[in-house]
Task: inverse folding
């Protein structure tokens, strides 16, 4: 069937239709009828992931229910040289699961069994489609939980978390997916089953698990994940501190860390965000504050009392204009409700918003926020700033109207400029959302030709035929050259100090 | 170090790499040489990294230190200590001259690994020279970064077989506010049971070590609690309720953990010329193992996941030990050998001896070829 939303020249269209028939015929014998979709009305829900601005219809969508089916699908596509785009829950924000028009979308959503839970060794073995939060829910009665908690944890799947090396509010203290996964079982594009990592710590040899983490579905298809569970803290309390100056707030973040404290969470919202969310959640935020910091402490009651006291002192010394400490769990959740609802609150302010994701050293938070204020004027678009201050992971939300094509392009350019500023400030173009299709051009700003060549070498080591999600994350030399030309306006290249080609 | 000095050191390294590539004479990278006995033996030309030394960037509030590979590990630890910060994975030095680069290449971690994570978990970024002499940087200096593949985390434990590490950025942590060490007499089985039970509770358990007889009977468990002062204080009676613990004097405790990390306890010292020190890495579930022909003392770290013992250094013993490890889901390493043991023996459990690894062997070979097409870093120290 013809992908509906694409304008394709007739000879190519014929080729795509022919390829689609061939692929569907090859996959039919190994999948139940309901697990293979190719009619446009069935495949349209898969045309994009959480980044709806980029869409493309796939040749077909396969929804295997067993590891064996996954292996057989991979082998068939390998033999037919059909590229595969793996997909979890589709909550990714960088277009990492955007289909390829001549490729198959491989959804792992039906592999959603919790295979085993072992309280003694504090591990759980789960299939890739298991939702992040479902793991913690399944082990809560044992006093354990799975620490990484991306904001999308209600919906996002552990397989996707592995591929994006997801973090969350608590990763400052408890680490990213990388730090909380012991073993990943997966299948190479050739159909071979492999295991990365081990339950026995620190195996000799190259740490292939480390490179599979955050590889955006380009190295192997995940079929089983062994996660580390940790003891649930007995208590958590949060301090909400207001600052009348954004720099003071940013400096307070550094002061807490310099005082030897690693809070369980350290999050920041600017005035525009606070106002937007207060209207939405009524958490009692200080609307006059230029910025609000949320600092959480967790652990034993004794530990929390000690840490809250120490953090309060540091925040006072850093010039906080107001401090509130949650007195009970309901209040703690109320303080967090605004931070957790910042995205939907932004959605009420404009028809669309573009959520960026870049990371900078903590000391540069104030500088970046000031620059973003300048960019708001330059692009004529408002931007809300809400972010994981503790690890310098910024999430500017650029407000725009998607119905206006010109405004969308302005929003895109605004976002790109923020990412370039992150690189210039010693940071990176993506903290936790991945590169996907969205930031592939910005990779040309952060990495030189040699690094990009090495990335392709890594890709080829796992997938020599380059069939697994091959159009994502790692730009080709040509792409960077084109991007370089595109970005030169009036003879002035942004960041001339960065290596180009 | 001035930029001129550092760039000339890099130029010299590049010349060595290019010459080795041209002449097909592989190099063996060496820092302080304190772990030169670790890994498979080789006789390749040495490329010494100590000339490229110095801390490049350290801002305590960023919790990151960036240093040249040849920087003495002691220097890094001293600079961190001034700001009350530490390398939480506690890398062993195994000698005075240990370097930062050597620690990363070896990928070894000390007693704190069980609570803090391994060395790889802390690596944020790296600058390398690849086998073509290309100067490349991966990762960065921030905690979260998913731009491109995480090449910098492939380097820990690669033992210089992938590239020459020039610089690395690692995450550091504040020194815990309070630390206490407790000790009790206990059997191996009970020690394994208790430490794993404690690890599943919200207790500030930072390290554990059981030392006892090879028969698995009586022994002594030493545990370290570290964290907020109030949390440490509250945990002592909880542990005391399970076993009869005594609190060690802080100086005695510090010496114990340091000697354990550096293999300077008596249990590591009786390495006979014909013996080998074996390392077993095992899943947490593994109970006491009966190891044939081992010498008297057995050391269990990481709640039983890392075990040390000495035994005859012949191939028959290694084969037995590997079989035992594999049967329990782990692997074995001939960590250090006595002077009279054949140095050409294989030291590691090979990938081919592990499950689902045929395809991985090919992946690993292609990865090596991609970073080092001419085999410059073919030190063979790692299979």
Result:
């Amino acid at each position: 069937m013809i992908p509906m939303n694409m304008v394709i020249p007739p000879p190519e269209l014929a080729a795509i239709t022919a390829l689609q028939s061939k692929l569907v015929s090859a996959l039919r014998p190994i999948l139940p009828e309901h697990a293979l979709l190719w009619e446009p009305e069935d495949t349209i829900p898969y045309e994009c992931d959480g980044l709806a601005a980029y869409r493309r219809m796939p040749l077909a969508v396969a929804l295997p229910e067993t590891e064996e089916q996954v292996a057989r699908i991979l082998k068939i596509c390998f033999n037919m040289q059909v590229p595969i785009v793996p997909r979890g829950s589709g909550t990714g924000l960088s277009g990492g699961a955007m289909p390829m028009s001549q490729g198959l979308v491989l959804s792992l959503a039906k592999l959603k069994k919790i295979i085993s839970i072992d309280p003694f060794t504090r591990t759980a073995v789960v299939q890739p489609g298991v939702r992040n939060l479902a793991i913690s829910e399944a082990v809560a009665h044992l006093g354990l939980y799975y620490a990484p908690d991306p904001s999308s944890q209600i919906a996002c799947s552990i397989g996707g978390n592995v591929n994006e090396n997801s973090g969350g509010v608590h990763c400052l203290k408890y680490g990213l997916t990388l730090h909380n996964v012991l073993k990943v079982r997966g299948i190479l594009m050739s159909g071979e089953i492999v295991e990365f990592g081990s339950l026995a710590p620190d195996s000799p040899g190259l740490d292939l698990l480390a490179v599979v983490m955050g590889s955006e579905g380009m190295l192997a298809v995940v079929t089983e994940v062994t996660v580390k569970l940790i003891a649930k803290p007995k208590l958590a309390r949060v301090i909400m501190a207001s600052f009348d100056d954004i720099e003071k707030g940013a400096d307070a973040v550094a002061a807490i860390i310099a005082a030897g404290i690693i809070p369980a969470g350290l999050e920041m919202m600017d005035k525009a965000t606070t106002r937007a969310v207060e209207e939405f959640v009524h958490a009692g935020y200080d609307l006059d504050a230029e910025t609000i910091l949320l600092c959480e402490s967790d652990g034993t009651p004794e530990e929390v009392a000690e840490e809250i006291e120490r953090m309060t002192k540091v925040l006072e010394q850093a010039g906080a204009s107001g401090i509130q400490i949650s007195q009970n769990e309901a209040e703690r959740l109320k303080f967090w409700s605004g931070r957790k609802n910042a995205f939907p609150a932004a959605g009420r302010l404009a028809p669309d918003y573009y959520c960026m994701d870049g990371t900078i050293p903590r000391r540069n938070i104030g500088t970046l926020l000031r620059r973003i204020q300048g960019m708001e004027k330059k692009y004529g678009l408002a931007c809300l700033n809400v972010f994981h201050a503790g690890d310098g992971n910024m999430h500017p939300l650029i407000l725009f109207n998607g119905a206006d094509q010109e405004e969308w392009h302005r929003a895109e350019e605004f976002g790109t400029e923020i990412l370039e500023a992150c690189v210039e400030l010693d940071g990176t173009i993506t903290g936790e959302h991945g590169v996907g299709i969205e930031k592939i051009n910005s990779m040309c700003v952060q990495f030189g030709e040699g690094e990009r060549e090495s990335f392709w070498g890594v890709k080829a080591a796992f997938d020599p035929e380059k069939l697994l999600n091959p159009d994502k994350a790692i730009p080709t030399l040509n792409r960077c050259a084109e991007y370089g030309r595109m970005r030169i306006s009036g003879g002035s290249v942004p960041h001339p100090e960065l290596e180009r080609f | 170090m001035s930029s001129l000095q550092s760039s000339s050191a890099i130029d010299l390294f590049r010349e060595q790499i290019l010459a080795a590539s041209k002449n097909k004479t592989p190099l063996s990278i060496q820092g302080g040489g304190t772990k030169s006995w670790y890994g498979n033996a080789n006789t390749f030309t040495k490329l010494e990294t100590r000339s490229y030394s110095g801390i490049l960037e350290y801002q305590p509030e960023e919790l990151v230190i960036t240093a040249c590979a040849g920087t003495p590990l002691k220097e890094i630890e001293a600079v961190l200590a001034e700001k009350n910060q530490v390398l939480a994975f506690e890398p062993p030095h195994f000698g005075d001259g240990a370097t930062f680069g050597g620690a990363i290449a070896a990928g070894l971690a000390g007693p704190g690994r069980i609570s803090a994570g391994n060395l790889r978990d802390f690596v944020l970024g790296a600058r390398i020279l690849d086998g073509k002499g290309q100067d490349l940087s991966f990762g960065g200096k921030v905690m979260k970064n998913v731009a491109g593949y995480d090449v910098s985390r492939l380097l820990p434990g690669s033992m210089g077989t992938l590239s020459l590490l020039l610089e690395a950025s690692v995450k550091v942590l504040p020194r815990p506010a309070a630390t206490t060490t407790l000790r009790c007499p206990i059997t191996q089985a009970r020690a394994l049971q208790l430490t794993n039970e404690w690890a599943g509770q919200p207790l500030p358990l930072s390290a554990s070590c059981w030392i006892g007889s090879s028969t698995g009977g009586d022994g002594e468990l030493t545990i370290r609690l570290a964290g907020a002062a109030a949390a440490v204080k509250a945990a002592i009676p909880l542990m005391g309720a399970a076993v009869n613990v005594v609190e060690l004097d802080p100086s005695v405790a510090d010496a114990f953990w340091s000697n354990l990390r550096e293999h300077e306890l008596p249990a590591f010292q009786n390495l006979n010329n014909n013996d080998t020190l074996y390392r077993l890495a095992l899943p947490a579930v593994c109970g006491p193992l009966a190891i044939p022909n081992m010498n008297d003392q057995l050391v269990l770290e990481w709640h039983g996941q890392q075990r040390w013992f000495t035994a005859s250094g012949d191939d028959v013993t290694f084969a037995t030990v590997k079989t035992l490890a594999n049967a329990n889901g782990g692997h074995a390493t001939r960590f250090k050998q006595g002077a009279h043991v054949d140095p050409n023996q294989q030291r590691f459990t090979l990938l081919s001896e592990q499950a689902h690894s045929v395809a991985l062997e090919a992946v690993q070979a292609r990865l090596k070829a991609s970073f080092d097409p001419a085999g410059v870093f073919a030190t063979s120290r790692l299979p």
